[in-house]
Amino acid sequence: MRCHINLLKSNQVPHYFTRSTGTMGFTVIIVGGSVSGLSLASMLEKFNINYILLEAHPTIAPQLGASLGLLPSGLRILDQLGCYDKIRNNVGNTYYAAQMRLFSGKTWIDTKPTTFSEKLEERIGYPQTFVDRQTVIQVLFDSLKYKDRVLTSKRVNVVEHGGDHVTVHTTDGSKYTGDVVVGADGIHSKVRQEMWRIANDAKSDLFKPDPLVGLQCESKCIFGISKRPPGLPASPQQINAFFKNSNYMIISAPENRYYWFLFTEANKVYGKDIPRYTKEDELQLAEEHFEDQLTETTTFKDLYEHRLQTSLVSIEDHVFPRWHYRRIITIGDAAHKLHPISAQGGNGAMETAAVLVNTLVDALQDQDAKGSLTECEIDAIFTDVQANRFQRAVDAVNQGRRTNSASIKETLFSKIFVDYFFPRFGQSLIFSLIVKNTMSGPCIARLPVPERYIMAVERHQRRNPKKNWTTWTLMSLGAGFLFVFMFSRMRV
């Protein structure tokens, strides 16, 4: 389900827009007002598929201090939903000037006249950008035509199957019945927990051994949003800083703020032993790093003391082996949790939502006469969704793990990578990987492919008629071998 530029031009109308019968009888219950949940709701509206969305929080877009990295593959989907321009206008200038504090303590500054984001935008129509998670959720919510289908303060506690339906119960005593349930409720998903319970009650071995047992955590992260300290530039910046057992990612934010992440090592733990941290834990860890010199004019103490929102979390990154059972499927972090250093979590969540809608719309079109699907047909849909997305999610997890391993601890191999390889070849490598990832990634198949993407791709093809994937493939393979080699050496 790659996003081909010849699927639809912007002046063509998808088949389902021309339906005169109104909303389909088929109903999707979405649990979670997350990026994956709200993007799915917006997609379903485009095809007149009925849905209801249940959000546990009392508001749909709470400020939790989280930022979101958006890459071209995700921005293209947001563009199809009519959300890209609003997000871009909120972010403002996304042409981040890059600099790094190397393991050696030296500073590397990218002096090229064109920034990384500008090159991406020229090549495939979209830059990389960072934005408040709250902003993306609000823009997605505002894009909905039927906002009354989004219900807040609806915390799910039980899911049960009927003969031809599924019912969701919430803690306030309400219940909602539909054809399928989509768990978009995050890393600690209640829907996933209920899916496992239902399967185990039916004596199924599909989720045995306990999938949680195999989860592992090797690092932790304080993430936050701060007012801009006086020592950091007001112009758009992306700053990476590497220390003996930690590293930082710091990015300019709208309204004179900065997003930031402090990644540190943690003792390897598994499953239910993965800790949740308190504010006291966060402050203790932060104070241990106050003297870290992020730039020549700014320490971590400066950044932390200007904080607006912060949180300390364990870093879990994994892809569950099975995402669905009967009429239930999980998407986003509930199915595949990516390391934040990869900046691919939100993008992957929207990709899975798009593949789910693509597959569902195809099936409903085939079953147009009866307007519903059997449980066997639903299982086939969910199986296709996971088959389409599984390896791409695994690849993204592995990429995040290797990047983290190569940068969170000072070893001979990480020093070679950070201090010598990355300043010379890193941006070119990442650029080629993002372009290839975008062009091979899914979009919403029956909606027009955005003109800005088509124009950028066609412009590049006209300027470079003899170029093909060879260069990118060789660079990707070379980087893959390097990552695997370093990763294996660092585990010895």
UniProtKB/TrEMBL annotation:
Residues 27-370 form the FAD-binding domain. It holds the Pfam family FAD_binding_3. The chain crosses the membrane at residues 21-44, 469-487. It comes from the Eukaryota. Its cofactor is FAD. GO terms for cellular component: membrane. Keywords: FAD, Flavoprotein, Membrane, Monooxygenase, Oxidoreductase, Transmembrane, Transmembrane helix. GO terms for molecular function: FAD binding; monooxygenase activity. InterPro entries: FAD-bd, FAD/NAD-bd_sf, FAD_mOase_fung. It is found in: Membrane. Signal peptide: none annotated. Belongs to the paxM FAD-dependent monooxygenase family. PANTHER family: FAD-BINDING DOMAIN-CONTAINING PROTEIN-RELATED, FAD-DEPENDENT MONOOXYGENASE ASQG-RELATED. This is FAD-binding domain-containing protein. It comes from Gibberella zeae.
